Amino acid sequence: MNNRLSLVSILFLGLLIQTGEGWGAEYQSRYVTLSFSDMAVLRDFNENLSLDRKLSYSMQKKNVVTVTDEVLAKVDIIIEKTQVVLDMFPNGYHIQLILLPDVDAVSQIYKAKYGKHVNHIAYYSLSEKTIYVSVEDTRLQVLAHEIAHSVVDYYFKVRPPYNIHELMAQFAEKHITD
Ligand SMILES: [Zn+2]
């Protein structure tokens, strides 16, 4: 490849991984579009997201080369398990997962969107079909909880009352390791 051509491809690649909201890298799996600002954030998320023995077993069947592959494989496994726990398998399920460094970053985004100060380590935006999560506070149960909100959101044509939504998310969080 000559220099000019490689420069063009690097620029093009740069365009491809630039996302609309400037989250840096963006990757797709079967169920999620994953975004994160830098590799350190991705690595922290991966380290904190440990699967239990049963879920790890499903990982062995996946073809994992990079950290990104590993994260996408884990998240898809957790999504499938959450659907099994809830016994809800919505058609066309696909969500955005945005990794943020810490709880302050989650609060900032929440504040900018809803004008309220909260201390959530993660939340699911119904309108954006997006999970925002602090990688510092990430655990299997935290992610399963937010994923459950998204599965419930996709499953019901009429949105269940808030308390019921929350109850189902707590149920999934509790039973993700069953
Ligand atoms: Zn909740």
Report on this model:
The chain has 178 residues and is an alpha/beta fold. The chain has one domain: Glutaredoxin (3-Layer(aba) Sandwich). Helix content is 53%, strand content 13%. The longest helix has 20 residues. About 7% of the residues have low confidence. Bound molecules: zinc ion. Zinc ion (ZN) binds next to α6 and α7.
What CATH first level would be assigned?
Answer: Alpha Beta
- Compressed to H and E, one letter per element, the order equals HEEHHHEHEEHH
Number of helices: 7
Alpha-beta classification: alpha/beta
At CATH level 2, the architecture is: 3-Layer(aba) Sandwich
Biggest sheet overview: 5 strands, mixed
Radius of gyration over alpha carbons? 17 Å
User: On the 0-100 scale, what is the average pLDDT?
Assistant: 90
- Into how many domains do the coordinates divide? 1
| Strand order in the sheet with the most strands | 1-2-3-5-4
What's the β-strand tally?
5
- Helix fraction? 40-55%
What multimeric state do the chains show? single chain
CA(first)-CA(last) distance: 52 Å
Anisotropy-based shape = globular
CATH topology: Glutaredoxin
Low-confidence stretches: 10-21
Taken as a percent bin, the fraction of beta residues is: 5-15%
| Ligand set | zinc ion
